[in-house]
UniProtKB/TrEMBL annotation:
Its EC number is 4.2.1.134. The keyword rRNA-binding does not apply. Keywords: Fatty acid biosynthesis, Fatty acid metabolism, Lipid biosynthesis, Lipid metabolism, Lyase, Membrane, Transmembrane, Transmembrane helix. Pfam families: PTPLA. This is very-long-chain (3R)-3-hydroxyacyl-CoA dehydratase. It is found in: Membrane. Belongs to the very long-chain fatty acids dehydratase HACD family.
């Protein structure tokens, strides 16, 4: 009797996890699809990528910030064992995205007024749509690994493009940051010095390391494509 009750509780837990992951990925997919639609519509209307880049921040800044805050759940899913995936890669991506979004793009207008910015947002949206869409499809269709192979292929192409876009935005921001703006300089009451430009260099180095590890991980997965364990387990248990 106790074993039957235990199995029933486990089944209910699995169902709740699958439902939660489905809702989470559906919401993330909807948010990134909206950002992609706004980006594509701006390009279509303006017929000029530079003009569209200058306008894009006003169109997508708030949804971008909201969905990036929402992405913190990806880290929590791993910490609490809901999804078993590399914590370091996910945490590094979330941190570098946060820094680019809330520091580089928010504080340095020059970082947004060129083609690299629209490339960055376009690639972020494409990667997220592919990732959340594939996870959602696997939860619904019970784990088809060819979906994962497609995601890995897209990542191998899109991550380097996204890195190029992000790097170009940082380069555009450097002249503004090199003036010492947003930095704490000596002398001051607390006798401390903190340069935002130095932090930018550190975060850029972290982005380089993340790109290398991400591509290495994708190349490794391409030899035997599998879902992150939480999604794979949920898909199998729904059979």
């Amino acid at each position: 009797m106790h074993s039957i009750v235990r199995l029933d509780l486990l089944s209910q837990t699995d169902m709740a996890t699958t439902t939660y992951l489905s809702v989470f990925n559906a919401a993330s997919l909807a948010g990134w699809t909206y950002i992609m639609a706004e980006t594509s519509l701006a390009l279509y209307k303006d017929q000029d990528i530079v003009i569209s880049s200058a306008k894009l921040w006003g169109l997508v800044a708030h949804p971008l910030k909201l969905i990036q805050i929402f992405a913190v759940l990806d880290v929590l899913h791993i910490i609490f064992g809901i999804v078993r995936s590399p914590l370091g890669l996910t945490l590094t991506q979330v941190c570098t995205r946060f820094f680019n979004l809330f520091v580089i793009y928010s504080l340095c207008p020059d970082s947004r007024y060129h083609e690299g910015f629209i490339l960055t947002i376009f690639v972020w949206a494409l990667v997220a749509i592919a990732r959340h869409g594939i996870y959602l499809l696997n939860l619904i269709t019970r784990g088809q690994n060819w979906f994962v192979s497609l995601q890995i292929l897209l990542c191998l192409v899109l991550y380097p493009l996204g890195f190029v876009g992000e790097a170009s935005c940082i380069l555009k921001a450097l002249p503004f940051l090199s003036t010492g703006v947003y930095s704490i300089q000596m002398p001051n009451d607390h006798n401390i010095s903190l340069s935002l430009l130095t932090i930018v260099y550190i975060m850029f180095g972290l982005s380089c390391i993340h790109l290398f590890l991400r591509l290495s991980n994708a190349a490794s997965q391409s030899r035997q494509p599998t879902l992150p364990a939480g999604y794979h387990d949920a898909a199998l248990k729904s059979k």
